[in-house]
Specification:
The chain is built from seven helices and no strands.
């Protein structure tokens, strides 16, 4: 079987929300390092919790998740990022996606600025 990381990456790319999770992070002013993603963060958190029964700086360091430590230190923002990411992923499981929920405009639009 595939690893959790491969399954989540595959699902997020197939459903088209891979980059959206990082957009959520940037809107919350969470700095995800280059080459990393919110999916990577979720997998590191899971690995840390599964292997040690807890998520803390020491367990994250043990599983190469040191880059997540500054994120978890922002408790309120971290919680919101996890909840919004989970909500987004769950919505794709029930058939919703960004394109189907977006407002689609056809035709022309007149805009006036006073």
């Amino acid at each position: 079987g595939k690893t959790l990381a491969k399954r989540l990456l595959s699902h997020s790319k197939n459903k088209g929300y891979f980059g959206d999770l990082n957009v959520i992070a940037s809107q919350l002013e969470v700095d995800i390092p280059d080459g990393k993603s919110v999916i990577d963060m979720i997998v590191k958190l899971r690995n840390s919790a599964t292997h040690n029964g807890t998520i803390n700086p020491d367990s994250l360091r043990e599983y190469n998740g040191e880059w997540i430590i500054p994120i978890i230190e922002q408790k309120e923002v971290f919680s919101r990022l996890l909840l919004e990411s989970a909500r987004y992923m769950i919505m794709t499981l029930v058939g919703h996606d960004r394109d189907s929920k977006a407002i689609k405009i056809t035709g022309s639009i007149d805009m006036e600025f006073d």
